[in-house]
Design brief:
The protein has 255 residues and is an alpha/beta fold. The chain has helices spanning 3-34, 233-245; strands at 48-49, 54-55, 62-63, 68-70, 75-76, 81-84, 98-100, 105-106, 111-114, 118-120, 125-126, 131-133, 135-136, 152-153, 156-158, 163-164, 169-170, 175-176, 181-182, 187-188, 191-192, 196-200, 203-210, 214-216. Strands 2-5-8-11-16-19-22-23-24 form a nine-stranded mixed beta sheet, with no helix packed on it. The chain has a seven-stranded parallel beta sheet with strand order 1-4-7-10-15-18-21, with no helix packed on it. A six-stranded parallel beta sheet has the order 3-6-9-12-17-20, with no helix packed on it.
């Protein structure tokens, strides 16, 4: 290959590498500058946004934020939709329509659609693509297109400490108790008791904890051992290597 060809190829590769670095650096800057917090709300004017709460950039569709209250230390991932009311610029009255407690996590691409009140308790964690809505389409009239029929709405309550797996759907009128696990892809409607695991479409209780009997059916795996306070990452790695060498199946390998 001629020498000039090598030179041009090297210059082209250098330009692509520089352009790639610039693009990534620019995107990181946009993510930082475009995130929404109480101190940097941008164009959004929530009824309340607590200390330590952050909406990642880029945000999804957000409107009716005057009727949305976000607690402290919430993590709202990229492309999450938060809406109050059926459309922007409505007067929804004096009370909030969508309330998130402290420490709520909404995974990437999730939607929370509040046409009737939605309350999400403290420390609720949602995986990616979770859909929570207080409004559903109706199909009473067999001759009218479903999308043109007036929808039905009912309040939604999700108790503190719940975990909603990837792709879970919570329908109008659902009331989840405390520390409920919703399996990925489940469709939840109606009431779910405290300390229950639900799965399926429609979701049904597949496991529940009671003070007298514990988990029924019993858990198949032992509970993980918590990491003692004050233990360093170096100590954990050394402990994992030792336990793995001894064949301990409950070792913290990979920490």
């Amino acid at each position: 290959m001629p020498k000039n060809s090598n030179t041009f190829s090297s210059l082209g590769g250098l330009r692509r590498r520089l352009a790639s670095r610039a693009a990534h650096a620019g995107w990181r800057w946009m993510q930082q500058a475009g995130s929404v917090t109480a101190q940097t709300p941008g164009r959004l004017r929530f009824a309340e946004i607590g200390h330590g709460t952050r909406l990642a950039f880029p945000q999804g569709t957000v409107f009716g934020e005057q009727w949305i209250r976000l607690g402290e230390c919430c993590i709202i991932a990229e492309q999450v939709t938060l809406t109050a009311g059926m459309m922007p610029d409505l007067d929804l009255g004096p009370d909030p329509l969508l309330v998130l407690g402290n420490g709520v996590v909404l995974g990437r691409g999730s939607h929370v659609i509040a046409d009737a009140p939605i309350t999400i308790g403290n420390d609720v964690f949602c995986g990616p693509g979770v859909y929570i809505t207080s409004t559903n389409h109706s199909y009473d009239d067999p001759h009218e297109p479903i999308g043109r029929q007036w929808p039905r709405s009912a309040p939604v309550e999700i108790g503190p400490g719940c975990w909603l797996g990837t792709g879970a759907v919570v329908l109008p009128g659902a009331r989840l108790g405390r520390n409920v696990v919703v399996a990925a892809g489940s469709v939840v409607r109606g009431e779910v008791p405290d300390h229950a695991v639900v799965a399926g479409a429609p979701a049904r209780v597949v496991r529940r904890w009671e003070p007298e009997t514990g988990w029924q059916p019993p858990l198949r795996t032992p509970a993980p051992r918590p990491v003692p306070q004050g233990v360093t990452s170096e100590q954990l790695r050394a402990l994992a290597a030792l336990a793995e060498a001894e064949g301990d199946p409950s070792s913290p390998a990979g920490v």
